[in-house]
């Protein structure tokens, strides 16, 4: 259907002072063929909305461009049924970020640059609405409203109760014979609120009673998940008796090491296939679905954590291996049984040393997986010693880091006032048998610079909480990318998608993490986390019903389509999708799963054949926007550069920088992209062949300090840069004309500098040698 386009330009907030808006109107109705183009000094007011609505009805407009404030502002008033809407941030991208003083001797030249900038943005916006189509939601007809919770500890039971309270049916799967998890082994737990100086009885039994009496909750104990197949809204889950094998166990792919022969060379395809079949003998292929599987809409992983147990020979200087040297979890079990007794001879314990760090002197000095929780547990267990032996009991806590966040500081201060509890910062250099059944602990570099030695009955090591997902599949997914979450080793085994910006999200859409698999937590924190995960599970089911994406693009009803006639089965889309949204058939042809898809577009960026795209965001749409930019052929002072800005970090940074009055070069044109992973090399080629002089990819951080909202998009874009460099070299162009820069959302002050430095580098190189061809 042909487009009847209306262009509406907001003139407030300094826009009309920065640019000639009348020229923008002429451009829209003349060169660009818009049906209507108007300005309004208060476009977002009821009067402005009424003006647009009247034109939509009287002129039959089916696409409108609202050129004014940042598209990150919602303004649902402009959402007219059947009318495609494009929002353009003239205020932030032009007026606020390119303010010119009248006293500037180059004011006229700069104004010319800024006017050209605004005109190009109008061209790009109109071109987009001409090319884009209205998304149509892919609604699941009858998504299941049942929620599966893996894990029956405090986190899992809380998540189940929260979801049940919202009216959803829940199944808890617990591998142990009883509910409760590690919380059932506690003698006491940390305070949940005032008075923060006192420990409280465990609340786990109360939770168990509530779960068992709730008609919306089913409990399967001594049970594990054998396989989770299919998609959010229609997960097909097979169960098995804990500790047994099942034909529906999710097949396990070969590891990188298993794919190699004894010389380190990859095995032939036939041998790989045979080895895979031997490894998964008796298991059904991941493409098969158990006909007796139960159906669920979403999954909450609350399988918790397991204690870190030092290996034999580890921490020898701390006398690990001596029966009186135990971990904090082992000490908790002793305390649960009554007054703590020494393992070696059963003597009641009167003096205990709690060691927080294995002897180092910097931030890497803690025990593996240590956290604020291990600090709090040591304080809690020191209180046990004083409760058991109020007259003679002594607890020594030696630490490099003592972490007591929030109001737990009151708990810490309360213990400081106890005359039988001694806290000392220092490095424990040795623990040895003292010849009297007990142990001597030597500590150096205390706060006073002295070395001290104490004799104790026992030593407790503050080892950490290891997420169960580090070494176990837990979810056992029937996904092409394997049964577990991807790249867990990068994140310490925690199954997060982005724990800073999107808590509860995992690398698998519809599966949400809470509690110890999310990070080390106290019981109070785990209960709060469980409530959040339950809400996300409910939202996921609603998203499947309504046909839109889950976080972060919850408003997005579009989804990628594939032109399969040209698919070469290269598998790049299935392999590079961060969320396992794509399976494939025996030939390698991708099989889309809309409810798994996060709409990041990484598959589109990966496809060398350019056959993947969205109705309003595809190779042609963005490529046409690039080509719509006017590139002067004969003016070395008017070079043109494109910036692909990630919508999650980079684009908000630009908005914030503009609002703070930062300036960047008017020679660049910003195109927001869903993720740098969606940037196809074709766009960069389009830019360079159109005479653009440089291209900058501006996205989230990757690597150890990753911030990418789609997990690996920036990293994948960085890998593709090698192909771009090769292409530019083959054309006799400098590979430095295309760069990638990383930025976090709080680094808005750095973005203008990044852009301006890039512009300076391109200006020094000079014009694109293919300009004007």
TrEMBL record:
Names of the cofactor(s): FAD
GO molecular function, one term: 4 iron, 4 sulfur cluster binding
Record keywords: 4Fe-4S, FAD, Flavoprotein, Iron, Iron-sulfur, Metal-binding, Oxidoreductase
Domain 4Fe-4S ferredoxin-type positions: 558-587, 588-617
Family annotation (InterPro entries): 4Fe4S_Fe-S-bd, 4Fe4S_Fe_S_CS, FAD/NAD-bd_sf, HdrA-like, MvhD/FlpD
Cited PANTHER family: COB--COM HETERODISULFIDE REDUCTASE IRON-SULFUR SUBUNIT A, FERREDOXIN:COB-COM HETERODISULFIDE REDUCTASE SUBUNIT A
Protein family membership: Belongs to the HdrA family.
Protein name (record): Adenylylsulfate reductase-associated electron transfer protein QmoB
């Amino acid at each position: 259907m042909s487009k009847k386009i209306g262009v509406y330009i907001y003139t407030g907030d300094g826009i009309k002072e920065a640019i000639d808006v009348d020229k923008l109107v002429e451009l829209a109705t003349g060169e660009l063929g818009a049906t209507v183009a108007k300005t309004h000094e208060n476009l977002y007011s009821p009067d402005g909305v009424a003006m647009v609505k009247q034109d939509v009805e009287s002129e039959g407009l089916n696409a409108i461009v609202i050129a004014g404030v940042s598209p990150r502002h919602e303004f649902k008033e402009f959402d007219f049924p059947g009318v495609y809407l494009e929002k353009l941030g003239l205020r932030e991208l032009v007026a606020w970020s390119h303010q010119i003083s009248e006293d500037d001797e180059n004011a006229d030249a700069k104004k010319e640059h800024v006017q050209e900038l605004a005109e190009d943005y109008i061209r790009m916006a109109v071109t987009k609405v001409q090319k884009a189509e209205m998304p149509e939601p892919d609604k699941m007809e009858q998504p299941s409203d049942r929620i599966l919770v893996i894990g029956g500890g405090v986190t899992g039971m809380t998540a189940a109760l929260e979801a049940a309270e919202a009216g959803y049916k829940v199944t808890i799967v617990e591998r142990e014979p009883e509910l409760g998890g590690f919380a059932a082994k506690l003698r006491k737990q940390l305070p949940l609120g005032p008075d923060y100086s006192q420990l409280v009885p465990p609340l786990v039994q109360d939770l168990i009673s509530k779960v068992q009496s709730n008609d919306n909750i089913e409990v399967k104990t001594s049970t594990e998940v054998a396989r989770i197949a299919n998609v959010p809204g229609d997960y097909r889950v097979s169960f098995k008796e804990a500790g047994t094998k099942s034909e529906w166990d999710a097949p396990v792919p070969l590891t990188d090491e298993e794919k190699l022969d004894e010389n380190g060379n990859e095995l032939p395809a036939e041998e790989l296939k045979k080895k895979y079949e031997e490894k998964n003998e008796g298991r059904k292929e991941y493409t098969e679905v158990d006909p007796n599987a139960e159906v669920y809409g979403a999954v909450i992983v609350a399988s918790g954590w397991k204690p870190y147990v030092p290996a034999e020979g580890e921490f020898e200087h701390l006398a690990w291996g001596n029966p009186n040297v135990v971990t904090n979890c082992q000490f908790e079990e002793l305390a649960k049984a009554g007054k703590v007794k020494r393992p070696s001879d059963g003597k009641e314990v009167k003096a205990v040393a709690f060691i927080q760090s294995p002897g180092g002197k910097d931030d890497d000095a803690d025990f593996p997986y240590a956290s604020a929780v291990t600090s709090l547990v040591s304080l809690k267990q020191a209180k046990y010693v004083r409760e058991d032996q109020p007259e003679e009991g002594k607890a020594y806590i030696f630490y490099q880091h003592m972490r007591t966040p929030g109001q737990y500081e009151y708990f810490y201060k309360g213990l400081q006032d106890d005359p039988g509890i001694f806290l000392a910062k220092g490095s424990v250099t040795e623990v040895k048998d003292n010849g009297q059944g007990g142990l001597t602990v030597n500590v150096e570099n205390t706060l006073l610079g002295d070395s001290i030695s104490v004799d104790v009955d026992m030593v407790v090591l503050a080892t950490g909480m290891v997420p169960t997902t580090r070494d176990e599949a837990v979810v056992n997914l029937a996904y092409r990318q394997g049964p577990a979450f991807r790249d867990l080793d990068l994140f310490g085994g925690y199954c997060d998608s982005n724990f800073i910006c999107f808590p509860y999200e995992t690398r698998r859409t519809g599966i949400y993490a809470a509690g110890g698999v999310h990070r080390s937590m106290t019981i109070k924190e785990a209960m709060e986390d469980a409530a959040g995960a339950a809400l996300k599970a409910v939202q996921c089911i609603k998203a499947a019903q309504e046909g839109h994406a889950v976080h972060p693009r919850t408003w997005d009803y579009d989804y990628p389509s594939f032109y399969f006639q040209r698919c070469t089965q290269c598998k790049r889309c299935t392999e590079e999708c961060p969320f396992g949204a794509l399976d494939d058939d025996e030939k390698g042809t991708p099989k889309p799963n809309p409810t798994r898809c996060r709409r990041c577009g990484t598959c589109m960026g990966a496809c060398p054949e350019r056959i993947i795209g969205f109705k309003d965001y595809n190779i042609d749409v963005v490529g046409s926007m690039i080509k719509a930019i006017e590139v002067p052929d004969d003016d070395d002072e008017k070079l043109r550069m494109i910036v692909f800005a990630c919508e999650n970090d980079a684009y908000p940074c630009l908005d914030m920088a503009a609002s703070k009055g930062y300036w960047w070069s008017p020679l660049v044109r910003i195109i927001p992209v869903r993720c740098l992973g969606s940037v196809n090399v074709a766009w960069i080629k389009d830019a360079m062949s159109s005479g653009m002089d440089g291209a900058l990819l501006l996205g989230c951080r990757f690597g150890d300090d990753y911030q990418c909202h789609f997990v690996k998009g920036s990293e994948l874009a960085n890998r593709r840069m090698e192909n771009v460099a090769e292409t530019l070299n083959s054309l006799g162009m400098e590979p430095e004309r295309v760069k990638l820069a990383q930025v976090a959302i709080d680094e808005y002050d750095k973005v203008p500098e990044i852009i301006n430095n890039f512009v300076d580098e391109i200006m020094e190189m000079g014009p694109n040698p293919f300009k004007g061809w």
